[in-house]
Amino acid sequence: MFKHRFWWSLVLSVPVVIFSPMVADLLGYHLPQFPGSDWISPVLGTVIFVYGGAPFLKGGLSELKSRQPGMMLLIAMAITVAFFASLVTSLGVGGFELDFWWELALLVTIMLLGHWMEMRALGAASSALDALAELLPDEAEKIPDDGGAPVEVPIAELAVGDTVLVRSGARVPADGQIIQGSAAFDESMITGESQAVERGTGDTVVAGTVATDNTVRVRINAVGADTALAGIQRMVADAQGSSSRAQALADRAAALLFWFALGAGIITAIVWTALGTPDEAVVRTVTVLVIACPHALGLAIPLVIALSTERAAKAGVLIKDRLALERMRTVDVVLFDKTGTLTEGAHAVTGTAPAPGTSEAQLLGLAAAAEADSEHPVARAIVFAAAHHPEASVLGLRGTDFSSAAGRGVRATVDGTEVMVGGPNMLRELGLSMPDQVQADVDGWVQRGAGVLHVLRDGQVIGALALEDRVRPESRATVKALQDRGVKVALITGDATQVAQTVGRELGIDEVFAEVLPQDKDTKVTALQSRGLSVAMVGDGVNDAPALTRAEVGIAIGAGTDVAMESAGVVLAGSDPRAVLSMIELSRVSYRKMIQNLVWAAGYNVISVPLAAGVLAPIGFVLSPAVGAVLMSLSTIVVALNAQLLRRVDLDPSRLATISDQDRRTAEREARPSIL
């Protein structure tokens, strides 16, 4: 809307300015004269006022009704006064010389440009609720009551008591209970847990979660608004509804300027009328009200926002909400989700403990061969580790007769021997125990919160593997840089307390919240806010959406879910948490530019409005409308040049938070599965 109105208004403004007597006098040229030339500015100026000024007139009326004056009402007042004063002059009523058609045209055009720049910079409005709805499949495989073949039906037709088939890799269409089969479910969208959870007959499954390895039958016990996913939608909606309604900086400045202009206009009219010059009272009052809305104020903030958004994008930060940009400089604590934010969000083999008589290469090779046909994320991590191990990768082991048992592990035949890979349940069922040499390593892994898988060959334990969600090498640098800037760092996760505390200690985090469900994440943000802290929440999952919306600044990792990105005011294009530093630096610098521009724009008014009102008339100086308009244009040029200085700001995350050589070596070592 602003784009189209701007271009049309710009085109129409050219002849309005050219045929303005005031502009001709200022620039010293003769107006072209032909039949009807005197009406070019009035006619086109009226079109600009009605068409281009419509958004401001509607917005001003809305602000007037809500008794919250701001930028829209200030602009509406200025263009309305300019329009009627110019119309009266063109019609020859009262003999006034108040030809403001050119000023009206430029004011509308520049304000449209400012709002268009701002809208383009900020992008489309958040649609977190729509993104949440997209997590559900469009159709479900419903099993008829007579037990026939599954039939695809829209999920809207599902009812409590229906039975559906959920295949491997498919999402659960509604909350329910497994009545046949078992599978590992990816429930990270609900719980935040990075590891898939085994669910079998009698267990409850949640709409939107994914069966990763097997097919199960589920009896539906909740549909529509009663599902857990719908509950998250309601929390996001509530958080959006209760988020701060604080006006942006420019709106607050515009509100103050409106009252200043209105008060100055009223005083001017009263004083000049009392002096016995009502005609001069009209001229002075109109001049005050028109020039009280400087172009500079309309462009001061949009220019800074547009340039800030451009600079941020080059640093991997996408700004969706201008309030987020302003608030980031005041953040007291950054609350990071663990999985996928401070950690890589994917399992990796971080330790091996072969039993006597078995080499590390044999242990990895046999485990990978047994897991090769599994689609489970843990299996893929083991296969990856073996493929990148210099000795295990050349063994050429292959598994056959693959089978999996939910909650226990997998079984396969490798080189004529039976190989099993599984967790503690497998050992308990088989009545086996770990060799002492292996148990010592396993105890250390368990203590730091790592997952442990045991490897058996022909019924004998030949070793164990540790699997963890590896901490990003950039995370420690991010935490330290934030703390150096006086910002506290907190961690929140649905993972077990042991895992969370281990990551917290490793990174030096100030406060850790573990085993937190989605509704509790939202509550934790509220709790931090109740302690008087301004919170920035950084997350990447569906379960983070309510908290992202509730926080003063919601920051989503771009590699995360659509829901997280739509719920946040800021999106990090990559997965580097150091980009949060770029956001803080940009917020502080851009805020300074906003203040500088507003001071300049307001300073122009503080000086020009009294002069236009005639405070120096006793000594023979009165600011003419033409000179006031020229000064207004110069003010616009100053704020535009000042905003351009933002291009010199360095927002490179790697320079704002440098990874230490020790952390870099650790990351390189952990990235090589050959050195575990």
Automatic annotation (TrEMBL):
Domain P-type ATPase A: start-end pairs: 134-236
Protein topology in the membrane: Multi-pass membrane protein
A Pfam family per the record: Hydrolase
Localization, UniProt: Cell membrane
Iron is among the record's keywords: no
Annotated EC: 3.6.3.-
Transmembrane segments: 7-27, 39-57, 69-88, 100-117, 253-275, 281-305, 598-621, 627-646
NCBIfam families noted in UniProt: ATPase-IB1_Cu (TIGR01511), ATPase-IB_hvy (TIGR01525), ATPase_P-type (TIGR01494)
Family note: Belongs to the cation transport ATPase (P-type) (TC 3.A.3) family. Type IB subfamily.
Protein name (record): Copper-translocating P-type ATPase
Organism: Citricoccus nitrophenolicus
Taxonomic lineage from the root: Bacteria, Bacillati, Actinomycetota, Actinomycetes, Micrococcales
